[in-house]
Amino acid sequence: MHMKFMPAWYLLYTKPKHERRVAEQLEKKNIPLYLPLMKVKRQWHDRMKVVNMPMFPSYIFVELGNHGDYFESLNCDGTVCFVSVGKESARVRQDVINNLKLVVDNGSDVEVCPDNFNAGQRCVINEGVFGGQECEVVEYKNKQKVIVRIELLQRTVLATLPCLLLAQS
Predict the structure, then answer these.
(1) Strand partners, 50
(2) Range of the structural domain that residue 51 is part of
(3) Please, are residues 167 and 124 in contact by the beta-carbon 8 Å criterion?
């Protein structure tokens, strides 16, 4: 990373299955991070189990305040690089992080989908820590779903939110 540093959220790419290990190291270095997890059913030989898996395998959102945090993040065992667009590390907008947290913390039937959705109905969240925040609602598999678009990963996160949280904007 060169030129002028911009404090923001960035996307860190890790070795496969190293997300939690890298997240632990970042926490020890007091570097803010967000590793969204989702519940996934896994079949063991003798039973079915629900486990928390990273929503975006090999990716962690990291909030960098300065060059030092950038280099400390890259110095974690299991880190590969920051995702970049051209020659610059790609920044993730704060509203994307907020919407992702809203969906992960309050949603049900959360899933990540590579499909490209047409623009949905704009709604405003009525209550809770994200009250006043805008979101987008689409119909998917005959259900109303809130979506969060993660352009950098070319993915859409879908979740069902309680209807009383939403109002059309």
Answers:
(1) 41
(2) 8-92
(3) yes
Which spans in the chain are helix H?
19-28, 67-74, 94-106
| Global pTM value | 0.75
Is residue 38, in this structure, part of any structural domain at all?
yes
State the Rg of the chain over Cα: 17
Q: Which of 60, 63, 62, 61 has the alpha carbon at shortest distance from 14?
A: 60
Does one domain contain both 107 and 151?
Answer: yes
Helical segments of 1-158, H only: 19-28, 67-74, 94-106
Residue type, 102: L
23 lies in a domain? yes
One digit per residue, pLDDT tens: the chain, 169 residues? Answer: 445 678 999 999 999 999 999 999 999 999 999 999 988 888 888 888 888 889 889 999 999 999 999 999 999 999 999 998 888 888 998 988 987 887 788 777 777 776 666 777 777 766 665 566 667 777 777 777 766 767 666 667 777 765 544 555 4
Residue 111: strand pairing partners: 158
Judge if 98 and 62 occupy the same domain: no
